[in-house]
Amino acid sequence: MSLPGPLNRPKIRLASRLFHRFLGHYLSDPLALHYAVRIFIGTVFLWILLQRADDTNAIWAIITMVFVTEPHMRTALDTFRLRIYNTAVGCAIALIALLIVGPRAWTVPIGVTLAVLFSTRTPESPAAWRTTPVAAGVVLTGGLAGNSWAAGLQIALIRAGEVLLGGLTAVAIAWAMSLVWMPAAPKKVDDADGTPV
Predict the structure, then answer these.
(1) Cβ proximity of 154 and 55 under 8 Å
(2) How many domains are contained in the chain?
(3) CA 24 to chain centre
(4) Minimal CA–CA distance to 144: which of 95, 88, 71?
(5) Model confidence pLDDT, tens digit, residues 129-170
(6) What 3-state DSSP class applies to 189?
(7) Which residues are CB-neighbours of 51 under 8 A, at least 6 positions away?
(8) How far apart are CA 123 and CA 101, in angstroms?
């Protein structure tokens, strides 16, 4: 089938073949497509919602939504719980540091280091420990920039709210998608030689 009129050009045909080859590659991996659809839906929802709420920085909600996005509801809930826990711990460590020491430049590295020490010792979240020092760093630098404990508290509450919103969005999308489109379970791979079991 040839394209009519001005669309019948070699460059357009080449672009069409490349697009179909590219799209075919991603359509052959249903889990990748599943993640992409979930993250697209979540990002659009969060962006529109937070823009309407005059929050021009929706990045924490979007980051959390991406971290929590999982194809299976149980995994999404576990990831969400750990994300909320680690964010709350990081904010608490930062607020305690700001309360005790005050907004000083050296408070940031000490507070972040304390958050790392605390979070890496938490047995149930070995992979999610990085959230704690990141949250502590954001709150500490906010308190330093605002030159007060109150500024740190305000940032902690806003960030925790955004994390909660992003996580709830991911869990809601996991639930809704489980009703209409559940990807097949991944094939188990033998660790010894990498062949499917």
Answers:
(1) no
(2) 1
(3) 27
(4) 95
(5) 888 898 898 888 888 888 777 888 888 888 888 888 998 999
(6) strand
(7) 58
(8) 29
Phi, psi of 122 (to 5 degrees): -80, 115
Residue 188 lies in a domain: no
d(CA 70, CA 87): 19
Is 90 in contact with 131 (CB distance < 8 Å)?
yes
**pLDDT, tens digit, for every residue of 86-106?**
888 998 999 899 889 888 888
| Residue 187 covered by a domain | no
Pick from 35, 38, 122, 33: which is nearest to 86 by CA?
122
117-134: b (≥16 Cβ within 10 Å) or e: ebbeeeeebeebbebbbb
